[in-house]
Design goal:
The complex is a heterotrimer of chains A (414), B (431) and C (318). With 414 residues, chain A is an alpha/beta fold. Helix content of chain A is 39%, strand content 18%. In chain B, the strands form 2 sheets. Chain B has a two-stranded antiparallel ribbon with strand order 1-2. A two-stranded antiparallel ribbon of chain B has the order 3-4. In chain B, strand 3 and strand 4 form a beta hairpin. The radius of gyration of chain B is 24 Å and the shape is globular. The chains are: A alpha/beta (414), B mainly alpha (431), C mainly alpha (318). Chains A and B meet through helix 1, helix 3 and helix 4 of A and helix 2, helix 3, helix 7 and helix 14 of B.
Chain lengths: 414, 431, 318
């Protein structure tokens, strides 16, 4: 009985997996992020941005090398590291050479190690890992490897830029730090304490708090503490429902100062904050949206909104990723030899349509770019988020942030 | 297996009665051979990885069924034993001096020991009662440990979990486990061994008493056995095998995270076991295979796989609570009477249109979802190898028609299937 | 001192919200022995329906109509789903509600998408009622307290002072006898299930603007509701109230005061080890009360189950 059912079931599997015949010569990019479950909206939005980037920037201009089209294939990892590793295998078997991922540093850590091991053990099917949003600093420090490239500023770089802006504020006397209790939240807190301490030793850190990630339904007790501490500003790395929760809660409960965040925009968060967050919420991010970085970017954004009226370009670095990858493929003259492509990618200088220059540091494969601190508002907003009329307007810019920051990466090159 | 109907010794089907060695050993040998042969059919690495995932789920589901099906104990936090076993194995992998001296093949034993250790502690107070109280304690303990896993970074590694490299162990007859195929054979061997051990456990006195305690604890006590201790032993044994599953997970994926411990994983294994059928030993095996296919392979084709999974579970509970195994075993009497062949034609007449009707309904669901949620201008969608525009009326009409006709035919031929079924299950008469 | 008052109010709000959810659940359990895993899903449906209605007709119509729809749906689930599965035993019933919870979550994503819905507090309530030393108490929270208390009083009145309530209470303990007396017990079951889910729906309507309306909201609240009714005692309405308030206050106070494990251990005489970063117990030493605030209810539940399995006010040990 067992064997018959097993055989029958697995033959169905073979039909589906075996049917993944290689599409004629497309350059395949695998997008491994959640497409179902609680984080599906962020993942799906990211996939749309990648697909659009491939179509608009590459395929519409005749493709790469001798006319090869770029194809982005979505793989649903359901935010699970185990599922990501399975989908990685599936992708590699389908002939993919470039893996992009960004939601969750936990998944990114799992993937970077798995890819390193795979490339070591299977030199004829190597892949590159283009990390577009996982900001745990360890990925370009202790856990760095030759195949991983990070296109977003890591948590330390972002904090550096944020604290530069905060340090310039003379009214700042007391700061409260709150974050999610995991590696990223701890990294943000540690960096904040460090950097504020160096730039403005007179500022007092009146609270440094971690709350369980994704579990807190009611942030009121936390916001009470924040108000009671007399803080002038709040720093948080929260994202998703936690960002929305803490933001709304502290505004509702009487906090009057600015809230410095990493991720308080897009995915319904901008719409939910709306008027209450105007002028209060600040975020550090890359890419100029308001005002837009270039006419080219403006045209692209309009075309994107035409195709996805409910979508947001809240991760313009996705377009940078595709742009730099295409450039590297063109320079290396091959879409298969990932060592050659990686060698071109590291050390590359690239002019981004979203404003400014990008530089991929060869020593740790961390990209260096301008960091903007923007404010949530409805004035001077050309491109809003969530069709809410509110968006993020750049207030100040740090050029080529952390270009000379140290790294503990000891990269082994093939 | 004990109901004897009138049999005809000249028919081979009816000669294979319970107790004969062929019947007992045959499935095991066939399964072992099938597992050895499978990689020759499915050669790519992703198929191997998926089959490994199936194997791990099989062991875990079988361990879970030791509690649920055989012991009647519903546990909502069983993933923690597999998780803790897995984490222990990862730490052993990272203790390079010790790890280099042992062959990788015995690593799951350590996982099992750690899982068993945790079960020893938790079982000491949770198995005092059965039923709802046990279920609630298991939920509480499960949530507690899962919540602690993010806090206690030293053992659980926080959000990134713990990772390691399996290739640094002592080579086993020259094999260093660099390739996925080698891991496959290791996992396959462990599946056969664990399943055999669990099956043998269910045949021992404590295994049989677990069944008795499940059905009537008071009466079991009158026989002189303590219901509480029987439950405890079952719990601990189940924890051991769950830990083995965790250890194999560690070998296969080389990373373990909080996800391995959380309530969602516990919920999944409950559904997997129930889907397969709790009343039979091989039920969880079928459930594990079916669910892995659903989760991994179906999710490649559609975003709505969880929706289909939920509907399937609901249908299972409402219409065939014996699970898939129950469905299969329903046919045993007919098979024994030699009349199973009578059912083939009626099945085709009813189930085939029914299946097509269901596929039509699925198409309608997919089209509705696409219509509502896809990007503007992204009108084309692909189902069943056809591409069409979801805003046109024609595809809707076709899909609707297929659904109605398919289900209509199935409904019309259902009475004749029922008759054929009754006929096939009645002894005597023409064959 | 002021902070204590503020925390009392906050804990009260949380506790009462939890009570609305657990009251329905515990009633359903005591009547039918079914632990309804999909209860939090009805809470979610209440929020979504109210959001949808409020777009067209406003918040107050949503508050009125959405729980009714949810109640009818709940009654339907009982009549056509649960009743059918009841014959197979307790485990299939549980798994049915489990699968139902999964299905409802998928359905919600199917219809409304995966993003958070902009379901907001109505403008008429969107102001600060009063402030205690800088901490504002939003008027909406006061509204929540009033509604919850009102419902509790209403429920208590119906159950203890009206004839229907008497019949229900009798059917809670002796369904067969009540049936023999000529009452339509299956109808009562259906009604209780419907009312229980409607209560969850009301909780959803009220909590949606505050806790967020997104597909994961049922999962987030689901297990804590079970913990509540277990601590309070399965089947006891008073138990549900006491347990909800207890959990609401414990979690609020734990989060408000940063009690550090290090200080506690030092106070009982265990000195901090020297090299904390390498110590294998470092996580334990650096624990603070906000970190463990949300798992305190689980610890409490396990303790109660070990020492008093019937719960604080439990009537029925099944």
């Amino acid at each position: 009985m067992k064997n018959i059912t097993k055989l029958g079931a697995v033959s169905a599997l073979s039909l589906i997996i075996g049917a993944s015949a290689a599409f004629a010569e497309n350059i395949k990019v695998a997008f491994i992020d959640p497409l179902s479950g609680p984080f599906a909206s962020t993942g799906t939005n990211g996939l749309h941005q990648f697909e659009f980037a491939a179509d608009y920037m590459v395929n519409a201009n005749g493709g790469l090398l001798d006319g090869q089209q770029m194809e982005v294939i979505g793989f649903d990892n359901k935010i699970s590291p185990k599922e990501s590793l399975i989908q990685l295998q599936v992708a590699i078997d389908q002939g993919v050479r470039f893996i992009v991922q960004g939601n969750s540093s936990g998944v990114a850590n799992a993937l970077t190690e798995a890819i390193d091991k795979h490339n070591r053990r299977n030199p004829d099917s190597r892949v590159l890992f283009l990390n577009y949003a996982a900001v745990d600093p360890a990925l370009t420090n202790d856990k760095c490897n030759f195949w991983h490239f990070r296109f977003d500023a890591n948590a330390d770089i972002k904090m550096d830029a944020l604290t530069d802006v905060m340090a310039a504020d003379e009214n700042l006397k007391k700061v409260y730090i709150i974050g999610q209790d995991y590696s990223f939240g701890k990294a943000v807190a540690a960096a904040a304490v460090d950097m504020l301490g160096a730039k403005r030793p007179d500022v007092e850190i009146v609270g440094n708090e971690l709350h369980p990630i994704g579990k807190v339904k009611d942030f009121t007790p936390y916001s009470r503490k924040i108000v009671a501490s007399g803080a002038d500003a709040v720093i948080t790395g929260n994202w998703g429902a936690d960002m929305l929760g803490i933001g709304k809660s502290i505004i509702e409960n009487g906090f009057e100062g600015p809230i410095y965040t990493y991720y308080a925009a897009g995915s319904g968060i901008t719409a939910a904050f709306g008027e209450s967050g105007k002028g209060r919420i600040r975020l550090v991010s890359q890419g100029d949206i308001n005002p837009i970085g270039s006419d080219e970017a403006r045209e692209l954004y309009k075309a994107f909104k035409a195709k996805y009226p409910d979508g947001n370009i809240d991760q313009s670095r996705i377009f940078n990723t595709i742009g730099m990858l295409s450039e590297a493929i063109t320079q290396a003259g091959t879409a298969d030899d990932v060592v050659a492509i990686a060698s071109k990618l590291e050390g590359m200088e690239y002019d981004s349509m979203w404003g400014g220059k990008l530089f991929m540091r060869p020593q740790d494969h961390q990209i260096i770019q301008n960091m903007n601190v923007g404010v949530h508002t409805d004035e001077n907003v050309e491109f809003d988020y969530d069709n809410s009329g509110f968006g993020v307007v750049t207030e100040s810019t740090v050029e080529m942030a952390s270009m000379d920051a140290p790294t503990t990466c000891e990269m082994k090159r093939p | 297996m004990t109901d004897q109907l009138t049999t005809d010794p000249s028919k081979p089907a009816q000669r294979m009665r319970a107790g004969s060695m062929t019947l007992t050993l045959a499935p095991w040998i066939i399964a072992a051979v099938a597992m050895m042969v499978m990689p020759l059919v499915f050669t790519n690495n992703s198929a191997l990885t998926i089959m490994n995932q199936m194997s791990i789920t099989i062991i875990f589901a079988l361990a879970y069924n030791m509690l649920l099906g055989q012991g009647g104990m519903l546990s909502f936090g069983h993933a923690v034993y597999a998780g803790v076993g897995g984490f222990a194995c990862m730490h052993i992998m990272n203790m390079s001096d010790f790890f280099e001296s042992i062959p990788l093949v015995i690593l799951p034993v350590f996982g099992g020991l750690f899982g068993m250790g945790l079960a020893l502690i938790v079982g000491s107070f949770s198995t005092r009662s059965a039923g709802t109280v046990f279920a609630m304690i298991s939920l509480g303990v499960g949530e507690l440990i899962a919540a602690c896993s993010v806090i206690i970074v030293a053992f659980f590694g926080g959000e990134e979990g713990i990772s390691g490299d399996r290739t640094y162990a002592q080579p086993f007859f020259g094999v260093e486990f660099l390739q996925q195929i080698e891991v496959y054979y290791l996992t396959a061997a462990w599946v056969i061994i664990s399943a055999a051990l669990m099956y043998l456990w269910s045949r021992t006195p404590v295994g049989r008493m677990a069944n008795a305690v499940r059905d009537n604890p008071e009466r079991a006590e009158f026989l002189g056995y303590s219901a509480r201790w029987v439950r405890y032993y079952s719990f601990v044994a189940s924890g051991f095998f769950a830990g083995v599953a965790g250890g194999l997970f560690a070998i296969n994926y080389e990373i373990l995270t909080e996800e391995n411990l959380n309530t969602a994983s516990s919920g999944v294994i409950l559904l997997v076991t129930f889907l397969g059928g709790v009343g039979f030993f091989f039920g969880p095996i079928i459930g594990a295979i079916a669910f892995t296919l659903l989760q991994t392979v179906l999710s490649l084709s559609t975003e709505l796989w969880a929706f289909y999974a939920g509907t399937l579970f609901l249908a299972t509970v409402m219409f065939f609570p014996g699970g898939l195994a129950g469905l299969i075993m329903m046919h045993v009497p007919a098979f024994k009477l030699g009349k199973a062949s009578q059912l083939i034609v009626p099945y085709l007449k009813t189930l085939l249109p029914g299946a097509i009707g269901l596929l039509g309904a699925a198409a309608l669901v997919e089209m509705t979802f696409h219509f509502r949620h896809a990007a503007t201008g992204d009108d084309e969608m692909t189902i069943f190898w056809t591409t069409f525009n979801s805003h046109d009326v024609l595809p809707w009409i076709i899909a609707g028609a297929i659904t109605l006709i398919g289900l209509g035919i199935a409904r019309a031929t259902a009475p004749s299937l029922k008759d054929a079924w009754n006929e096939a299950n009645t002894a005597g008469g023409a064959s | 001192m002021d902070l204590i008052l503020v925390n009392l109010i906050d804990g009260l709000v949380t506790g009462l919200l939890l009570f609305m959810l657990s009251a329905g659940l515990t009633l359903i359990f005591s009547m039918m022995g079914v632990l309804n895993f999909a209860h939090a899903s009805f809470y979610m449906l209440g929020a979504y329906f109210a959001y949808q209605i409020s777009i067209a007709l406003g918040f107050w119509m949503g508050l009125l109509i959405a729980p009714l729809i949810v109640g009818v749906l709940g009654a339907g689930v009982e009549r056509y789903g649960l009743r059918r599965v009841h014959q197979y035993g307790h485990v299939p019933e549980l798994i049915f509600t489990f699968g139902l919870a999964l299905l409802i979550e998928e359905l919600v994503q199917f219809i409304w998408g995966k993003n958070q819905m902009p379901y907001d507090v109505p403008d008429i309530l969107n102001f600060t009622a009063f402030a205690i030393s800088g901490n504002s108490i939003p008027a909406y929270k006061i509204f929540m307290i009033f509604i919850s208390v009102g419902i509790f009083i209403g429920l208590l009145y119906v159950l203890t002072k009206t004839r229907v309530g008497m019949i229900i209470q009798a059917a809670l303990s002796y369904p067969r006898t009540v049936e023999a007396l000529g009452h339509n017990v299956p109808l009562i079951f259906m009604g209780v299930f419907g009312v229980g889910t409607a209560l969850a729906g009301v909780a959803g309507v009220i909590a949606g603007p505050v806790l967020g309306t997104f597909p994961g909201m049922a999962f987030v609240l689901g297990s804590i509701v079970f913990v509540t009714i277990v601590i309070g005692g399965l089947g006891s309405l008073w138990g549900a109230l006491v347990a909800s308030l207890l959990i609401g206050w414990i979690t609020t106070f734990a989060k408000s005061y940063n009690i550090e494990m290090e200080n506690v251990l030092n106070a009982i005489g265990i000195a901090t080890p020297e090299n904390l970063d390498d110590n294998i117990f470092r996580d334990f030493w650096s624990l603070t009360s906000p970190q463990i605030a949300d798992i305190l209810p689980y610890i409490l539940m396990v303790l109660i189950l070990i020492f008093r399995p019937a719960g604080l006010f439990g009537k029925r040990t099944s």
